[in-house]
């Protein structure tokens, strides 16, 4: 350890342990705590890691891995005091740690210690050019020195890549100081530059316009930028603007909220590829501003990515029920439950939300999707009906709702309704590959409009030539048309793209049989069985292995694949 370690650090470590260890926990550290701490941190199970690290630190109080682990765990759990105590210990040991510096700066801001914040940055203990630049500007504003704050943002703007952030926050600082006209002018001038048209900046500009009596201009801004496809927060803002309300400025009303906004902005950037960093910055934003709903949502999303669904649901629960974002938070919580195998509970949450918030198309669509995964197809169709009725005419996601309603209708043997929905979806989104494939394959399976169906699937393959499921549909269309050599060609290609898919291997076996390659057909059927097909498919494959395809077809029991192709991948978006 560095020689600069001082006895006072041990006191800091003991304070960390006191904060992190639950009451009554044993002070003696088991021999395996070090490895257990590393494992918990690697799994991002910060709730489990925190008490293990605290015990281990009592036995090894100068261990840098444990100290930084304590910072990360405490930040991830939203505990700024424990994080700052561990950060102090690292600083006293002369160890540079980005998470520790973030923890120190966060507590300085939370406590209103603007001079201490500036001292940390000037002493070279900042958290990086972006956060340091924002912190210097907001710290000056926190001290009541607006000219110095604006000058700090201007200085930051001269650094490569930071201009848009600096000038956006300069505008927010101007608004926080009462210069709404100047803030509107600056934000408007930044149109198209970096985050200036990011969602939060857009909210800020709309709020400022609404506070200046320019509500109609704010509504036009939202409509032209986002259309009518708005999340609940933006939809609520637009409705209040359209009603002529005088809108308060909520994005950054003071210096602490302004720096929370900066932390959230960094978290949003990190979320694109670094969920742990996104989580730490989102938690820091929540320390400064517990009501920051977007930060809570982002923390939840990061925790989902880190494999911590229960912690994610706890983060979503931080959103105040009075906040318009509560609807988004509860939908996210329900989606997390559904992914965790608790679909019935997810459906209950969504049904309760739908009763409390009627006329929300995204909510009704999500409810329909959840009910559909539970095979509650009639209820799902009803939810999709309500979603379609609530959508503005032909707006972005409407095609997707018709698509999933078609799936629910097919599951109820309502082909006429399903076909109408699929064709309507194609009118709204011409050339969409999944739609073309689904409708084309369904027509092939029904033996209807085969040439039209083949053309649809060929168009889908042209759009996504490496999509094995769509290539399989093309091969199966050729099979149904009796064009067996072409079927073999396409199904072999599909099997190369998705070699472990039981349906594709089964289809390829059928095609081999039709061209007289009987040994290869049986090999493909056995291969299909090894990939755990659906029970009905497995039974049909076994009959083909025992009797041959011709005998099974003659008995009238071979009808290819049940129903339509798997239609909607998890996460496929309707926008």
Write the layout of secondary structure elements.
Elements (H helix, E strand, L loop, with lengths): L6 H14 L12 H10 L3 H14 L4 H13 L3 H13 L5 H13 L3 H9 L6 H14 L3 H12 L5 H14 L3 H10 L9 H13 L3 H12 L5 H11 L12 H16 L4 H14 L4 H13 L3 H8 L9 H14 L3 H14 L4 H13 L3 H14 L7 H14 L3 H14 L4 H14 L3 H14 L4 H13 L3 H14 L4 H13 L3 H13 L4 H13 L1 H6 L21
Helix pairs in contact: 1-3, 1-5, 2-3, 3-4, 4-5, 5-6, 6-7, 6-16, 7-8, 8-9, 8-10, 8-15, 9-10, 10-11, 11-12, 12-13, 13-14, 15-16, 16-17, 17-18, 17-19, 18-19, 19-20, 20-21, 21-22, 21-23, 22-23, 23-24, 24-25, 25-26, 25-27, 26-27, 27-28, 28-29, 29-30, 30-31
Flag low-confidence runs. 1-15, 21-29, 192-196, 557-564, 566-575
Strand content: under 5%
At CATH level 3, the topology of the domain at 433-554 is Serine Threonine Protein Phosphatase 5, Tetratricopeptide repeat
Q: What is the CA-atom radius of gyration, in angstroms?
A: 29 Å
Number of helices: 32
Quaternary organisation: single chain
What is the CATH architecture assignment of the domain at 433-554?
Alpha Horseshoe
Sheet with the most strands, sense and barrel status? none
Q: How does the helix and strand content classify structurally?
A: mainly alpha
Helix content: over 70%
Task: Choose one word for the global shape.
Answer: globular
Distance between the termini: 54 Å
Total strand segments: 0
Mean pLDDT: 88
CATH class category label of the domain at 433-554: Mainly Alpha
User: What is the H level of CATH, i.e. the homologous superfamily of the domain at 433-554?
Assistant: Tetratricopeptide repeat domain
